[in-house]
């Protein structure tokens, strides 16, 4: 990024770093508004050149984030693939994977949903770290069943919380069936 004066007519923002001859404010205004068709076609060609098409998924072959999702142009590759195929992602929605394969950018494997939809999808597909699978869990299923049995026999929640080394609210959630629901 060069130093200098913003090339946008009438721009009076403080300058310093420039991208494509524009200050940060003007660059992001241009970026959010979209890019011209010729430039978009070039970006799209570069994007799809970084994808390996397999019989099932189209896998991103470049940078991945810590969760395995592709990175492209400062954003998620699967979101970019969605924009190329279907247009902008509506505000407040996320691009989710039907295939549960984070590097996949195949447009027909993607769908829109809210954060709640994403979490529900994770639970339905068995990817949620619930119960003993959660690395932060202090209890086991054996302990949870013992808590329920002892509470049913009249042991107080306060005594159970001291015995099992967890807060009383945890005991209440277990006894009331809000957490540690039996697997079906």
Average pLDDT figure: 83
CATH class call of the largest domain = Alpha Beta
Q: Low-confidence spans: pLDDT under 50, at least 5 residues?
A: none
Q: What is the CATH fold-level name of the largest domain?
A: Homing Intron 3 (I-Ppo) Encoded Endonuclease, Chain A
Please compute the radius of gyration using only Cα atoms: 25 Å
**Proportion of beta-strand residues:** 5-15%
By DSSP (H or I, 4+ residues per run), the number of helices equals: 7
What is the total number of structural domains? 3
Q: Largest sheet, described in full?
A: 2 strands, antiparallel
DSSP, total strands: 8
Shape: elongated
- Please give the alpha-carbon distance between the first and last residues: 57 Å
Structural class: alpha+beta
One letter per element, helices H and strands E, the order comes to: EEHHEEEEHEEHHHH
Q: How are the elements arranged and paired?
A:
Elements: E1 2-3, E2 17-18, H1 24-33, H2 37-48, E3 51-53, E4 58-60, E5 71-72, E6 75-76, H3 77-86, E7 94-97, E8 110-113, H4 115-124, H5 141-152, H6 157-164, H7 168-175
Antiparallel strand pairs: 1-2, 3-4, 5-6, 7-8
Helix pairs in contact: 6-7
What does this structure look like?
The chain is an alpha+beta fold. The chain has 3 domains: 1-33; 36-124, Homing Intron 3 (I-Ppo) Encoded Endonuclease, Chain A, CATH 3.90.75; 132-175, no CATH class. 38% of the residues lie in helices and 12% in strands. The chain is built from 7 helices and 8 strands, in the order ββααββββαββαααα. The strands form 4 sheets. Strands 1-2 form a two-stranded antiparallel sheet. A two-stranded antiparallel sheet has the order 3-4. Strand 3 and strand 4 form a beta hairpin. It is elongated and about 75 Å long. It starts with a strand and ends in a 9-residue tail after the last helix. The mean pLDDT is 83.
């Amino acid at each position: 990024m060069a130093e200098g004066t913003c090339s946008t007519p009438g721009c009076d923002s403080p300058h310093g770093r420039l991208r494509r001859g524009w200050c940060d404010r003007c660059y992001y205004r241009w970026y959010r508004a979209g890019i011209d068709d010729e430039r978009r076609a070039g970006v799209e060609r570069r994007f799809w050149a970084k994808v390996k098409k397999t019989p099932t998924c189209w896998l991103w072959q470049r940078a991945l984030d810590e969760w395995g999702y592709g990175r492209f142009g400062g954003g998620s590759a699967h979101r970019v693939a969605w924009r190329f195929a279907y247009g902008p992602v509506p505000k407040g929605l996320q691009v989710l994977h039907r295939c549960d394969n984070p590097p996949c950018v195949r447009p027909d494997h993607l769908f829109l949903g809210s954060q709640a939809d994403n979490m529900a999808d994770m639970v339905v597909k068995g990817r949620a770290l619930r119960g003993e699978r959660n690395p932060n869990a202090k209890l086991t299923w054996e302990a949870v069943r013992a808590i329920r049995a002892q509470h049913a026999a009249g042991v107080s929640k306060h005594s159970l919380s001291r015995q099992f080394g967890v807060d009383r609210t945890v005991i209440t959630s277990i006894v009331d069936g809000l957490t540690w629901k039996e697997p079906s």
